[in-house]
Design goal:
alpha+beta; 38% helix; single chain; 4-stranded antiparallel β-sheet; Aspartate Aminotransferase, domain 1; globular; 86 residues
Length: 86
């Protein structure tokens, strides 16, 4: 598998992006971020189309909009089983 290049400014981009969301979405996105980062110390926080989290591939991502927040799992099995071939 090719090594994924991560955005070195991801944390700052996520902080800035969250601060510009609707107040209700800021609360939800901050909480999601905290939960995701505490799920596995090996997860890598990145910025692609918004916050994305990697562990041998994209695991999940989220983002806030005017009236909702989206949260997507791409490879949830990798978190639950910690299988490295996911």
């Amino acid at each position: 598998m090719a090594k994924v290049k991560h955005n070195p400014d991801a944390a700052a981009l996520i902080d800035k992006g969250i601060s510009e969301l609707e107040p209700f979405a800021q609360v939800i996105c901050k909480r999601l971020r905290k939960i995701i980062l505490s799920a596995d110390p090996e997860l890598i926080e990145d910025w692609k189309w918004g916050p994305n989290y990697y562990l041998n591939g994209m695991v999940c991502g989220y983002w806030g909009f005017k009236k909702h927040v989206s949260f997507v799992f791409f490879k949830v099995l990798c978190l639950k089983t910690r299988k490295r071939f996911c």
